[in-house]
Amino acid sequence: MTGPALSVLSVDLAGDAGQSRQLEEREVRYALGRCEKRIRYALMRHGGSVVRRIDRHLTAFFADGGEAWQSAVEMQERVAALPLYAGLPVSVRIGICSGHHLDEAQFFSSDGPNPASRLSAQADASHILLSLPRRLKLLPEWLPAAERRQDLPLICGKRRLDICQIAWQEASAPAVKTLLSALGRGQECLRLQHQGRRHRVDVGRPVLSLGRQPGSDIFLRDARCSRQHGTIERCFDRFFFVDRSTNGTYLLQDDQTPVFVHHQAHVLLGRGRLYLGSPASEKGVEFIEFQASVV
């Protein structure tokens, strides 16, 4: 992604309609106001800027998608911890559109429905709905916590968006912050190290081959690796490992759970290791260390 990054968080306050009708208007306003204070606090604490407020709906812009995610989780935690007021249960529904450019703000700041508000309208209190531009090819394999939602078609301008839902209470959910923060860092170079030798993938060299076949850019010696084991590629300013091997590859990056990659592509973000042909626990396994950075 080139240029300033943009993530958009949309949150809807939801009170029980039947219970609301039994309360005075001032009681309903007070109960919802307590929630809004906590929502605004979570937005400000993580760098969000409110750009629209209509009734029980707020839209905020973030420069860092990871902070937008952390803000959403904190909102859910703070609202869930509130004691009932006059017996009125209140919850929040949250949608996040991440992976956008700042010049796409026009699609989110008008008074009518926008992609983020459409997400929050379909969310529930247990899940946060997240969208990413389809061209980034980050769903569905990139994160174990994500459950793809193909029943919710969504576009931003002319771009089609992929949608997933994530249970924010799950232990694996924090890995979402790592990925969304990395999307906005403008990573243009992937630095690699294999058996003491350094390599890099960037605009000038967008593809690197690895395998036991002579002439491979990274030559592998372990018999558990394939002759044409895979490639590391730069596409849409993102880096991907493409596995073409018999035994597969084990990917460990940042704080995420190890992922088995076999005959598929997987995005590389931050730093980590590729264990080739065998898991990290096996003796003598070959591995490649990588780190994405700004040139």
Task: Provide a descriptive summary of the structure in words.
The protein is an alpha+beta fold and 295 residues long. The chain has two domains: 179 residues, 2-Layer Sandwich (Alpha-Beta Plaits), CATH 3.30.70.1230; 105 residues, Tumour Suppressor Smad4. It is 20% helix and 38% strand. It has five helices and 19 strands. The strands form three sheets. Strands 1, 2, 3, 4, 5, 6, 7 and 8 form an eight-stranded mixed sheet that branches. Strand 9 and strand 10 form a beta hairpin. It is elongated, with a radius of gyration of 22 Å. The relative contact order is 0.12.
Kindly report the CATH topology of the largest domain: Alpha-Beta Plaits
Strand content: 35-45%
Described by strand count, sense and barrel closure, the largest sheet is: 8 strands, mixed
Count of separate structural domains: 2
- What's the number of helices? 5
The top-level CATH class of the largest domain is Alpha Beta
Question: What class would the helix/strand composition place it in?
Answer: alpha+beta
CATH architecture classification of the largest domain: 2-Layer Sandwich
Shape: elongated
Distance between the termini: 14 Å
Low-pLDDT regions = 16-20
Mean of all residue-level pLDDT scores: 85
Beta strand count? 19
Order of helices and strands: EHHEEHEHEEEEHEEEEEEEEEEE
- Global Rg: 22 Å
Helix content: 10-25%
